[in-house]
Amino acid sequence: MWWIPPLVAVLPPLIWGWxxxxxxxxxxxxxxxxxxxxxxxxxxxxxxLLAMGIVSGMLGAVPTFFWATSALALVLFPIVSFVALWxxxxxxxxxxLWFTHYLLDALKELRRSEVEKTLNIETRVIDMELPxxx
Length: 134
Fold this sequence. Notes:
The chain is mainly alpha-helical. It is 86% helix and 0% strand. The longest helix has 53 residues, at 77-129.
Protein backbone atom coordinates (compact mmCIF):
# COMPACT_ATOMS: atom_id res chain seq x y z
CA MET A 1 0.00 0.00 0.00
CA TRP A 2 2.95 2.34 0.55
CA TRP A 3 3.76 2.24 -3.16
CA ILE A 4 0.47 3.92 -4.07
CA PRO A 5 1.26 7.67 -3.92
CA PRO A 6 -1.97 9.00 -2.35
CA LEU A 7 -1.83 6.44 0.46
CA VAL A 8 1.64 7.60 1.50
CA ALA A 9 0.25 11.04 2.29
CA VAL A 10 -3.06 9.89 3.78
CA LEU A 11 -2.37 6.65 5.66
CA PRO A 12 0.30 7.75 8.21
CA PRO A 13 -1.73 10.72 9.55
CA LEU A 14 -4.77 8.46 9.85
CA ILE A 15 -2.80 5.79 11.70
CA TRP A 16 -1.15 8.31 14.03
CA GLY A 17 -4.47 10.07 14.51
CA TRP A 18 -6.22 6.86 15.48
CA UNK A 19 -3.41 5.81 17.83
CA UNK A 20 -3.25 9.25 19.44
CA UNK A 21 -7.03 9.28 19.84
CA UNK A 22 -7.09 5.88 21.53
CA UNK A 23 -4.12 6.55 23.81
CA UNK A 24 -5.11 10.04 24.93
CA UNK A 25 -8.79 9.18 25.34
CA UNK A 26 -8.15 6.19 27.57
CA UNK A 27 -5.47 8.05 29.50
CA UNK A 28 -7.74 11.02 30.21
CA UNK A 29 -10.79 8.96 31.14
CA UNK A 30 -9.10 6.13 33.06
CA UNK A 31 -9.64 7.48 36.56
CA UNK A 32 -12.81 9.48 36.03
CA UNK A 33 -15.40 7.28 34.31
CA UNK A 34 -16.97 3.88 34.35
CA UNK A 35 -16.51 1.53 31.40
CA UNK A 36 -20.02 2.31 30.17
CA UNK A 37 -19.43 6.06 30.28
CA UNK A 38 -16.10 5.67 28.51
CA UNK A 39 -17.62 3.59 25.72
CA UNK A 40 -20.48 6.06 25.36
CA UNK A 41 -18.16 9.07 25.20
CA UNK A 42 -15.80 7.42 22.73
CA UNK A 43 -18.74 6.43 20.54
CA UNK A 44 -20.44 9.85 20.64
CA UNK A 45 -17.26 11.86 20.01
CA UNK A 46 -15.25 9.47 17.84
CA UNK A 47 -15.00 11.76 14.79
CA UNK A 48 -14.00 14.82 16.80
CA LEU A 49 -11.45 12.78 18.73
CA LEU A 50 -10.08 11.31 15.49
CA ALA A 51 -9.71 14.80 14.00
CA MET A 52 -7.92 15.96 17.16
CA GLY A 53 -5.65 12.91 16.96
CA ILE A 54 -4.84 13.55 13.30
CA VAL A 55 -3.97 17.19 13.99
CA SER A 56 -1.82 16.16 16.97
CA GLY A 57 -0.14 13.44 14.92
CA MET A 58 0.61 15.85 12.09
CA LEU A 59 2.01 18.38 14.56
CA GLY A 60 4.22 15.62 15.94
CA ALA A 61 5.73 15.18 12.48
CA VAL A 62 6.90 18.80 12.28
CA PRO A 63 10.26 18.28 14.07
CA THR A 64 10.91 15.18 11.96
CA PHE A 65 10.29 17.24 8.83
CA PHE A 66 13.06 19.63 9.83
CA TRP A 67 15.41 16.75 10.62
CA ALA A 68 14.77 15.14 7.24
CA THR A 69 14.89 18.24 5.05
CA SER A 70 17.81 20.16 6.45
CA ALA A 71 21.46 19.41 5.86
CA LEU A 72 22.15 22.11 8.43
CA ALA A 73 20.64 19.79 11.05
CA LEU A 74 23.75 17.60 10.83
CA VAL A 75 26.08 20.53 11.38
CA LEU A 76 24.09 22.01 14.25
CA PHE A 77 23.12 18.65 15.75
CA PRO A 78 23.31 19.63 19.45
CA ILE A 79 21.14 22.70 19.00
CA VAL A 80 18.68 21.10 16.57
CA SER A 81 18.28 18.01 18.78
CA PHE A 82 17.55 20.17 21.82
CA VAL A 83 15.02 22.29 19.90
CA ALA A 84 13.38 19.18 18.38
CA LEU A 85 13.07 17.56 21.82
CA TRP A 86 11.55 20.75 23.19
CA UNK A 87 9.05 20.91 20.29
CA UNK A 88 8.12 17.23 20.74
CA UNK A 89 7.47 17.87 24.44
CA UNK A 90 5.45 20.99 23.71
CA UNK A 91 3.27 19.16 21.16
CA UNK A 92 2.73 16.27 23.58
CA UNK A 93 1.65 18.64 26.37
CA UNK A 94 -0.63 20.53 23.97
CA UNK A 95 -2.29 17.30 22.81
CA UNK A 96 -2.73 16.05 26.37
CA LEU A 97 -4.32 19.31 27.49
CA TRP A 98 -6.53 19.45 24.41
CA PHE A 99 -7.85 15.92 24.90
CA THR A 100 -8.26 16.43 28.65
CA HIS A 101 -10.24 19.63 28.26
CA TYR A 102 -12.44 18.20 25.51
CA LEU A 103 -13.21 14.85 27.15
CA LEU A 104 -13.76 16.14 30.68
CA ASP A 105 -16.15 18.76 29.31
CA ALA A 106 -17.97 16.04 27.36
CA LEU A 107 -18.10 13.92 30.53
CA LYS A 108 -19.59 16.84 32.47
CA GLU A 109 -22.28 17.29 29.81
CA LEU A 110 -23.02 13.55 29.71
CA ARG A 111 -23.46 13.37 33.47
CA ARG A 112 -25.56 16.55 33.52
CA SER A 113 -27.91 15.13 30.87
CA GLU A 114 -28.15 11.80 32.75
CA VAL A 115 -29.04 13.63 35.97
CA GLU A 116 -31.71 15.65 34.16
CA LYS A 117 -33.20 12.47 32.68
CA THR A 118 -33.21 10.83 36.11
CA LEU A 119 -34.85 13.82 37.76
CA ASN A 120 -37.52 14.05 35.08
CA ILE A 121 -38.35 10.35 35.33
CA GLU A 122 -38.57 10.44 39.15
CA THR A 123 -40.81 13.52 38.99
CA ARG A 124 -43.25 11.76 36.66
CA VAL A 125 -43.28 8.65 38.84
CA ILE A 126 -43.98 10.67 41.97
CA ASP A 127 -46.79 12.60 40.24
CA MET A 128 -48.41 9.36 39.06
CA GLU A 129 -48.32 7.84 42.55
CA LEU A 130 -50.28 10.67 44.20
CA PRO A 131 -53.86 9.66 45.00
CA UNK A 132 -56.74 11.43 43.34
CA UNK A 133 -58.92 13.42 45.77
CA UNK A 134 -61.65 14.83 43.65
